[in-house]
Amino acid sequence: MSKEQRAQVNAMLRQARPEGLRSVEATRAGFKALMAQMIVPDSIHTVQTTLGDRPALHVEPDSGPRAGTILYFHGGGWVFGSPETGLSLTGHLVAKTGFGAFSVDYRLAPEHPFPAAVEDTLSAYRALLDSGQDPSAIVFAGDSAGGGLTVTTCLAARDAGLPLPAAIVAFSPGLDATRTGESMDTKAGIDPIFTREAVEHTGAMYLAGADPHQPLLSPAVLADLTGFPPMLIQVGTNEILLDDSTRLAARARAAGVDVILDITADVPHVFQSFAGVLDEADQALDRAALFLTQHVHIPDAAATSAG
Fold first, then answer.
1. If you classify domain 2-296 with CATH, what class do you get?
2. Is pLDDT at 98 greater than 70 in this prediction?
3. Which is catalytic among the residues 58, 92, 269, 295?
4. Which of 6-20, 86-100, 101-115, 202-216 has the lowest mean pLDDT?
5. Residue 268: is the preceding peptide bond cis (ω within 30°)?
6. Does residue 88 carry a catalytic annotation?
7. Sequence-ordered strand ranges (E) for 63-201
8. Per residue in 138-184, pLDDT tens?
9. Closest C-alpha among 59, 73, 76 to residue 105
10. Order of strands across the sheet with 259-264?
11. pTM, whole model, 2 decimals?
């Protein structure tokens, strides 16, 4: 039963949550161990590669990819995580869409604070465009901090005069370095993963003294989303970051952007990671895959040559 599954996931995450703040090294090791428990589809294969000037993990279905590319940004508070820790999410999106994906190993704070991550993800997108890929066949997807990067990379691409991707999927995105969402307080104690103290601790490493009141750090409250591609934002009700998603969706709607805000009850941050364990995770990934396949447009070579 789903209710039992949700209770088991909640208990597991509460057990994994440390008391107090941990060192960067301990946090990275703990997150790696937690994510190693997630289920990765058997029907994919991965290859280490380079995209832009950063390492990346190229993920493809065993049956061979259909046309279309997912540029994936992993989560981890801009401080921890890697393409490997995010592989359950990237792998399931690849398996469900048939697209190939590149998961970018962007630089992490505190060694490389803001705006290093955005520079790296923008460089990766530019590399895809420079390789001849059509932006209408590229989509951005990401979770948590990486979900935030789907939005800020689009902002940076637009500011650089680049064409924008065909669509964005963001799982529980981190979109507000000002931490002013009401859910930061109303969901305190309900969230089995995060506390305000914890997200402010890692957030300070990424900010490194930068003013959080700027669009690339707090797009949920400050970004102009005019001209953005269609967006699917998925979030759970048991998240202190819930209002990051609800406020960004409101800004997107006000800017005339097609946006779907997909809220699932009684599930935690990036619940999609529990695919194969939590029914809601599999269902959410099905919706995300459908959204992506609906918005990828492959230029018709025949029509192009005829024109």
1. alpha beta
2. yes
3. 269
4. 6-20
5. no
6. no
7. 69-73, 100-104, 138-143, 167-171
8. 999 999 999 999 999 999 999 999 999 999 999 999 999 999 999 99
9. 73
10. 44-51, 54-61, 100-104, 69-73, 138-143, 167-171, 231-236, 259-264
11. 0.96
Report the 3 state secondary structure along 49-94. Answer: EEECCEEEEEEEECCCCCCCEEEEECCCCCCCCCCCCCHHHHHHHH
Cα distance between residue 269 and residue 241, in whole Å: 8
Catalytic residue (one of 82, 88, 103, 144): 144
Other Cβ atoms closer than 10 A to 1: 7
Q: Are 200 and 179 in contact (CB under 8 A)?
A: yes
Q: Which amino acid is at 303?
A: A
Whether 73 and 89 have beta carbons less than 8 Å apart is answered as no
Tokens 């890697």 appear where? 82
208 DSSP β-pair partners: none
Q: For this structure, is 269 an active site residue?
A: yes
Ranges of each domain in the chain? 2-296
3-state secondary structure (DSSP) of residue 169: strand
* CA-based torsion, 45, 50, 51, 56: positive or negative: positive
As given in the structure block, the two tokens for residue 44 are 């994919």
In this structure, are strands 167-171 and 100-104 parallel, antiparallel, or unpaired?
unpaired
What is the SS3 assignment for 295?
helix
Q: Name which of 153, 200, 139 is nearest 54 in CA terms.
A: 153
Query: Is 295 annotated in the active site?
Result: no
Average pLDDT of the chain is: 95
Report d(CA 297, CA 166) in Å as an integer.
Answer: 8
β-partners of residue 103 are 57, 72
